[in-house]
Write a structure and sequence with these properties.
Layout lengths: L2 H5 L2 E4 L10 H10 L7 E5 L4 E7 L4 E3 L4 E2 L7 E5 L5 H12 L3 E6 L9 H21 L7 E7 H4 L5 E7 L7 E4 L7 H6 L3 E2 L8 H15 L1
């Protein structure tokens, strides 16, 4: 990671790094929460592989450096059955920090969490805000897409699933599906493209998703 990027007082997402405007909430965060002083270094990214150094003026950002470009890499995707409780937001935060590019939410035959269309839209909006915050915290240059939910049967024929007894992960793996607390049904395992083993232990949904992304990222 570039030293300027790593050592900046804050890292902010903005639609246009040629005119890095901040929302009222972002300005409040820099001013009242982080208590930045005028002149401190703040980096800005558009989430599309570009970033630049700016300076905090006390009310916004002033451009202070050239645009840097980070080459695109093969996307990493995790497809995961929605966990129950507040673990979903925590999981999304950690997956984004680890570098996942797409999180596809699934429902399965043993799913506990079921969303109607209205609740799904509200939850996705909230999770995208969580992802944006994690992008800023981890100094990411590329964004993270959050999509779904889809039924597992719709996607399993095209992607491998995490399942004990499967093959080892390789550098060619860029997507893995993680099942619910009760595991995949026999029918879901049968319809999956193939199985991959990510641990000898039985893992919670969020732990399995993080383990899968960590293993894929290490092979990247």
């Amino acid at each position: 990671m570039d030293e300027v990027l790593r050592r900046s007082a804050a890292h902010m997402l903005t639609p246009d790094i040629n005119d890095p405007l901040l929302s009222d909430g972002a300005i409040h965060h820099l001013d009242r929460v982080l208590r930045l002083r005028a002149g401190e270094s703040v980096t800005a990214t558009n989430g599309n592989g570009e970033w630049r150094q700016c300076l905090w003026t006390g009310t916004g950002l002033e451009i202070a450096g050239e645009i840097h470009h980070e080459p695109a890499r093969d996307d990493l995707e995790i497809s995961v059955v929605i966990p129950k409780g507040d673990r979903l937001e925590w999981m999304v935060q950690k997956l984004v920090e680890l570098g996942v590019d797409r999180i596809r939410l699934l429902t399965s035959e043993r799913s506990v969490v079921k969303w109607d269309d209205q609740r799904a839209a509200k939850q996705l909006d909230r999770l995208r805000r969580v992802a944006e915050s994690a992008i800023e915290q981890s100094r990411r240059i590329w964004g993270c897409e959050i999509v779904g939910p889809k039924t597992a049967r719709e996607v399993l024929p095209t992607i491998p699933i995490a399942e004990p007894g499967g093959r080892e992960i390789t550098e060619d793996d860029r997507v893995i599906a993680v099942g619910p607390e009760g595991g995949w049904t026999a029918e879901e395992v049968q319809c999956a493209k193939e199985t991959i083993s990510i641990s000898r232990q039985v893992l919670r949904v969020e732990t399995a998703a993080i383990a899968a992304v960590t293993l894929m990222a290490a092979q990247r």
